[in-house]
Write a structure and sequence with these properties.
The protein is an alpha+beta fold. The protein folds into two domains: about 90 residues, Orthogonal Bundle (DNA polymerase, domain 1); about 120 residues, Cytidine Deaminase, domain 2 (3-Layer(aba) Sandwich). The chain is about 40% helix and about 15% strand. A five-stranded mixed beta sheet has the order 2-1-3-4-5, sandwiched between helices. A hairpin with a 4-residue loop joins strand 4 and strand 5.
Length: about 230
């Protein structure tokens, strides 16, 4: 049986019309179809949305880990639609990060909750420092470097320069493990020791080094290694 084109659907059945009554009424497929906008000769926007979700096992986080080139290779998507989809997912992450902004960053849990939205969908390691004042209030988060799947290179001098330029008196380091492993590597241990010594020299409190995965964290401070 031939499918009825979306432009011939009943108005109340269109995702864009249903959205006027509240986005909570829409399924993930319907929301994604709004972002996709138009279909192709053989597939409407709903069909394309189902295909995209199907390729990622209906996992929005898996889609967010994708890059534009990879997503655009799905037949019917292309770079324009892929860009809109990933832009929407990025906005969601930024909203979550804003909502998670803590009053202070005194604990590894608060550091983890603050950084998770920025790190949970990364497929490579990133190293950040959180610069704080004496009340543990965040002055500025700074991404120092971005690396490969298993490690990232960090220049201690750049970390210290950022701390001094921003008048930070407390510093926390954060990096992610895309593999999901919480076990710190020997390189992680060496970096932590180097940061600790540099902070002591500059009279900056080195609060913690937190390793972030999608569902948990490892804290050097909580494990007594700082």
């Amino acid at each position: 049986m031939e499918k009825l084109p979306m432009n011939m659907w009943a108005k109340e059945d269109l995702p864009s019309e249903k959205a006027l009554q509240g986005f909570d009424r829409l399924s993930n497929t319907e929301i994604l179809s709004i972002l996709i906008g138009t279909g192709t000769k053989n597939e409407n926007a709903i069909d394309l949305a189902r295909k995209v979700l199907g390729q990622f096992d209906n996992n929005l986080s898996a889609i967010a880990k994708c890059d534009i080139d990879t997503l655009s290779k799905i037949p019917g998507i292309g770079k324009s639609k892929a860009t809109r989809i990933l832009a929407a997912l990025e906005l969601g992450k930024r909203r979550q990060a804003t909502n998670n902004a803590p009053k202070d960053l005194m604990s590894a849990t608060r550091i983890y909750n603050y950084m998770l939205p920025m790190m949970q969908d990364l497929d490579v390691e990133e190293f950040w420092v959180l610069l704080m004042n004496h009340n543990f209030k965040l002055i500025k988060p700074v991404r120092i470097s971005r690396g490969g799947i298993t490690e990232v290179s960090v220049d201690i001098r750049i970390v210290m320069r950022e701390a001094v330029l921003n008048n930070a008196t407390i510093l926390a380091a954060v990096h992610n493990h895309p593999s999901g492993s919480l076990k710190p590597s020997k390189a992680d241990d060496m970096l932590t020791n180097s940061l600790n010594k540099a902070c002591e020299l500059m009279r900056i409190k080195f609060l913690d080094h937190v390793i972030v995965t999608d569902g948990n964290y490892y804290s050097y401070h909580e494990t007594g290694k700082i």
